[in-house]
């Protein structure tokens, strides 16, 4: 996409996104919107230097920086943290003494906005950095058990945030 084309495309996408937020799409518009959302996510992933795994959804892989309260519970107990970034496929946060990769946890992700219900489900640790001098490590989770409705709410938030970062 060239400069002017990108600006026009983004304007059209913003309009589609706003209509999706208000649930005003026809089924044809909805299909067009989901396709455009995937295209934008692919472009932003490429701009971030990330390669998409074959068959993976860019929408589920694309992460945006966002600090949100998250309560994570393991067998040993519960921890409260703040997300570093989120996608509709998972999140990462700082933790002290996290269990190893592959560990399943319950989580409650507190969505921004007073009227927003939290996203509740199960997530699996897929990566963790070595602990810092303070003992914190970045821990990445993938969602194992999240409703389609909650995943859609997260995608709307993620694209709201992404559009807020894009000046065009």
From TrEMBL:
Any Pfam family matching the protein: PilZ
Entries under Gene3D superfamilies matching the protein: predicted glycosyltransferase like domains (2.40.10.220)
Stored SUPFAM superfamilies: PilZ domain-like (SSF141371)
Organism name: Archangium gephyra
Stored InterPro entries: PilZ_domain (IPR009875)
Residues covered by the PilZ domain: 59-159
GO MF terms, alphabetically ordered: cyclic-di-GMP binding
This protein's name: PilZ domain-containing protein
């Amino acid at each position: 996409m060239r400069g002017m084309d990108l600006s026009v495309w983004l304007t059209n996408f913003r309009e589609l996104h706003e209509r999706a937020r208000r649930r005003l799409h026809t089924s044809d518009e909805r299909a067009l919107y989901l396709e455009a959302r995937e295209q934008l996510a692919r472009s932003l992933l490429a701009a971030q230097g990330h390669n998409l795994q074959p068959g993976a959804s860019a929408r589920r892989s694309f992460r945006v920086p966002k600090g949100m309260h998250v309560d994570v519970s393991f067998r040993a107990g519960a921890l409260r943290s703040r997300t570093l970034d989120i996608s509709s496929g998972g999140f990462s946060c700082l933790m002290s003494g996290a269990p190893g990769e592959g560990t399943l946890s319950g989580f409650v992700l507190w969505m921004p906005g007073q009227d927003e219900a939290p996203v509740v489900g199960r997530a699996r640790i897929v990566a963790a950095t070595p602990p810092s001098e303070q003992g914190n490590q970045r821990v990445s989770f993938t969602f194992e058990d999240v409703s389609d409705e909650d995943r859609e709410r997260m995608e709307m938030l993620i694209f709201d945030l992404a559009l807020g970062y894009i000046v065009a």
